[in-house]
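Quick one, tokens below. Sequence please?
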């Protein structure tokens, strides 16, 4: 089974989420993570089909997570592109 992918992003969560919306992906604001009080956390999905990319912002850090079995054939690849700054505001 593939490992969990966590990638730090040099940029804002807003820019990452806007880039996802431009690709036609659906962004769902889940509030925060219990393990990171004061954080903001979003799930990004296709309108149809599987796969979820997570975006988290906390303490000046932004990172993207793709959990094992949540890739759906696209999420890990997109996470790497977004983290590299490709097609981001």
């Amino acid at each position: 089974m593939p490992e969990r992918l966590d990638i730090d992003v040099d940029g804002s969560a807003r820019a990452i989420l806007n880039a996802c919306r431009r690709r036609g992906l659906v962004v769902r604001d889940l509030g925060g993570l219990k393990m990171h009080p004061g954080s903001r956390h979003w799930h990004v999905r296709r309108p149809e089909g599987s796969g979820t990319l997570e975006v988290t912002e906390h303490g000046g850090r932004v990172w993207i997570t793709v959990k094992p079995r949540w890739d759906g054939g696209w999420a890990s690849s997109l996470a790497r592109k977004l983290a590299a700054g490709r097609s981001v505001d």
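The radius of gyration is 12 Å. Residues 13-22 form the longest helix (10 residues).
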